[in-house]
Amino acid sequence: xxxxxxxxxxxxxxxxxxxxxxxxxxxxxxxxxxxxxxxxxxxxxxxxxxxxxxxxxxxxxxxxxxxxxxxxxxxxxxxxxxxxxxxxxxxxxxxxxxxxxxxxxxxxxxxxxxxxxxxxxxxxxxxxxxxxxxxxxxxxxxxxxxxxxxxxxxxxxxxxxxxxxxxxxxxxxxxxxxxxxxxxxxxxxxxxxxxxxxxxxxxxxxxxxxxxxxxxxxxxxxxxxxxxxxxxxxxxxxxxxxxxxxxxxxxxxxxxxxxxxxxxxxxxxxxxxxxxxxxxxxxxxxxxxxxxxxxxxxxxxxxxxxxxxxxxxxxxxxxxxxxxxxxxxxxxxxxxxxxxxxxxxxxxxxxxxxxxxxxxxxxxxxxxxxxxxxxxxxxxxxxxxxxxxxxxxxxxxxxxxxxxxxxxxxxxxxxxxxxxxxxxxxxxxxxxxxxxxxxxxxxxxxxxxxxxxxxxxxxxxxxxxxxxxxxxxxxxxxxxxxxxxxxxxxxxxxxxxxxxxxxxxxxxxxxxxxxxxxxxxxxxxxxxxxxxxxxxxxxxxxxxxxxxxxxxxxxxxxxxxxxxxxxxxxxxxxxxxxxxxxxxxxxxxxxxxxxxxxxxxxxxxxxxxxxxxxxxxxxxxxxxxxxxxxxxxxx
Amino acid sequence: xxxxxxxxxxxxxxxxxxxxxxxxxxxxxxxxxxxxxxxxxxxxxxxxxxxxxxxxxxxxxxxxxxxxxxxxxxxxxxxxxxxxxxxxxxxxxxxxxxxxxxxxxxxxxxxxxxxxxxxxxxxxxxxxxxxxxxxxxxxxxxxxxxxxxxxxxxxxxxxxxxxxxxxxxxxxxxxxxxxxxxxxxxxxxxxxxxxxxxxxxxxxxxxxxxxxxxxxxxxxxxxxxxxxxxxxxxxxxxxxxxxxxxxxxxxxxxxxxxxxxxxxxxxxxxxxxxxxxxxxxxxxxxxxxxxxxxxxxxxxxxxxxxxxxxxxxxxxxxxxxxxxxxxxxxxxxxxxxxxxxxxxxxxxxxxxxxxxxxxxxxxxxxxxxxxxxxxxxxxxxxxxxxxxxxxxxxxxxxxxxxxxxxxxxxxxxxxxxxxxxxxxxxxxxxxxxxxxxxxxxxxxxxxxxxxxxxxxxxxxxxxxxxxxxxxxxxxxxxxxxxxxxxxxxxxxxxxxxxxxxxxxxxxxxxxxxxxxxxxxxxxxxxxxxxxxxxxxxxxxxxxxxxxxxxxxxxxxxxxxxxxxxxxxxxxxxxxxxxxxxxxxxxxxxxxxxxxxxxxxxxxxxxxxxxxxxxxxxxxxxxxxxxxxxxxxxxx
Lengths: 635, 635
What we know:
homodimer; Ubiquitin-like (UB roll); 6-stranded mixed beta sheet; 16 helices; globular
């Protein structure tokens, strides 16, 4: 029972069946957060993105704003961020507003760990019992028996040391972390407890946080779990969140990231307890490896990002100081050491270092191009001799942003699509539901199909063809992907892609291709020299490589040279947890990788501009597309 | 104004003029603590020591117990620990119950620091301003300019780094601590701030905590301050406090020690602010060096002492893990590193390691004997080649314990005394007040004078001489040191020393002499081989060496071989703060010093027993005493 005063209002959410009490004047978005309902708010609750649409019933005051269309307003839909609670209220969350169960990428084709040599080990210590002729202190007795007097024991463990030693009758199991020097005794258990040692790998993504519990004795993945990064409620992309933190302080974002990580850990512990038939607790997780982009890493540690956001894009630190699970507020063993992947630049983070590590490209004699497409595109080119990298503001088009019909790769998203001869559509929807929008891989399909069916020209402008699906909309020409009646619940109007949407997608693909071209040019390498293209990140596994090449997003080289590594950030984090060699390689990648700042690179502007065509200004760069070109024609 | 409910009682203390509100049923001792009045309670408030005598007026219930004499009871005196508040009350604190301003020992004849090389240094860092062609992170830019990329920066400083750098227009002053490896950046200031760098030396004594603020650039002591260890309220000696912590947990004692240290620090900051004419804050104190006995060090860090108290006397750790000012709850710069002196054994602590360091005995080719007399006696024998040490339970006789007329060396204590031809007394009182008791140096004087005047025999038994001052008391024979009318306020009865008191003093001096003899015997050295005797600790500077030799407490060797170093624990802590060499020597002393456990040493029992005479069973060991012997005679 929640106490309710005169100024308190009850807000009941459907279909969730959750009721919360909030103060009169609170926004419905705040009530959603209070209720633990993950709701989409790209703009951070500023009434600009129009995503947080809900249908309230009761006492409220709503500001319609600019982004809510007439149809919505008539249907009683309001923006949760712009509607304040004035009394008891029932609120229906429209399906598209909700951040729902989504597709997680964990499969990966990364390299195997050569030898299992984690920086954590368990050692049995059988000490001689103290007596009055040998009454050395407990700690020094332990270190003497271990033969290493320079080991550090955190004071929290030292406090329990006399008890642990005597409970184990002078036999203890020490978990030793050699992540830092001098090595530390992370955990101490009474008796012989060498049968189990668990570590945690985490990818702190802007959108999703994924964790894996790893058996450090066998190298096996025990459990995998993921959750939307709870920071999403403060803005969908990193820019919005940095702006939020500059105004409100970084603490809130730090807490939200850590809360998400801890929720993922809870889920991992539950799953692994079931698997082992034995309760696995936070104390059993004795080490962690965390990767993420530079901004996520800064938020996770609690550092100021304001100088990353603005030129000259300076992070606070590439390498983070040594930290323990306790320091980072992680629900693992408090003394466990946490490896944080180093970020190379403000927009080239530890996640890309992890991608490279997982791909193994830095060990190959042949030239490899690695492309990680997310909200930002990050490109690495190189081999065992050298590595160059850059980041391009690809924009969030492939993650559901800046495209009216866009959404993330979750249930209800069209992830692949074909245009039929009658210029109608056939598509696949994630979760086999009625569609609510189109995710990244679907958008690439769509634009490739629209181009090959001559619905758009080489500049991705919709042609005025005399069919019902092509029409003049409020914001210029639009193509109807699906009619309203066939869409999922809560959809308002038809599912359309507009000229403006297409230009956003065009810019995204041009940024990626342009950036890759710049790196090749700087290193004086040709496309033909590339022996492998590694695709990492968000929607890698769903992607149709042929389509991505056909719109000129990826280079036109033989398809069998393409390899997906899925979530390379998570894979790299896991590798560094399992092997000291991999951890050393991580540092080497960071040190060897040259970073090129594209924002001040004149080559990049040229290459980007040349790529603002389908597939490219210079059609000779895409020889394999000559057949499909015949239909689209040259305008 | 304090709110007062039905169950609250006001207790007004005189002559303090402090009034506090406590719950009905609280003891007067608890009310004293609430009022911040330091009151003597050797037994930890168990009604056994009879020290916490107060005179209440109002509603209270008192349990007389066994330790309160008839006279006291008639005078309305009660034990604060055994009297409960039942209503509003006025309470007079008897002077002897009060822990008052006392004599602090800080003068010392320890060696000078060879070269000023503190493990803290300040460096000016003038960085090139970041631009888009050189947008390395702030931390890495700083380290690059410093030329040491392995330096660690605590995350708390990292959080403020972007602001500090830009406020100083890319010029900062870094304070670097090389106490641990890798070195750490303790403090970062905007601009050039190389003019001042302060460190703190602390002696955490069982009775008193003394601190010194040291200018690390000049080596000068800026301020000195001390305060009774607030743990005294939980028991006067280490045994009582260990028992308290076993029952109640160590946390309370940790807090009390840290509170005392912080109060000392506040006083140091006030004094030094006045001296510099500029506000000195906790942030200005960038490093600390702390020494104390093993139990005090354990309490300060927060470790279990139960295995020190009982055989085989095992500490949790000799070397404490690296700690910061923040970790230790010290009001200094939170990132400052704190050097904690290592303890050699349960009853031979870091304070003795500091004594040795301050004495320089470990660098001498000649044989030195070091004696630290406090509640326990610690003895070290050695030279640059070797060091042996032991501890003896000397008992608290010289610190005011276990002797009815004993008190600590504070105002009102007789610190030197002569017995006149009429067997009356002449004495000096600290603070030039009327006496309330006798401190350690006064007791040594008294027993020497009583012996030379044949008031006591060689076994320290009071002779039945026909004078008024010698009489049969409740606990056997007693000698009146001063009549009641000449004593300070609050004294009840005459100031007497009893047979029982004398036996306690005899045991104390026998333990010290016996322990020193055992070390000499084990190393096959003679008294004549000793080139120097170093006296360290509590009452060193007040001591009359001749008298101490005459009762057989110190060896009978030429007086010019004696040297006082005063508070060697504080001196050693300061030396280790000022010089890396001294800090290295500290570790060497710890490693080279052999510890001998006297409690299981048969030699010790023999030597102790032989020393239970004045001056000794074997009078030949004290050749210089033959003249004074003539009067005392041999019984």
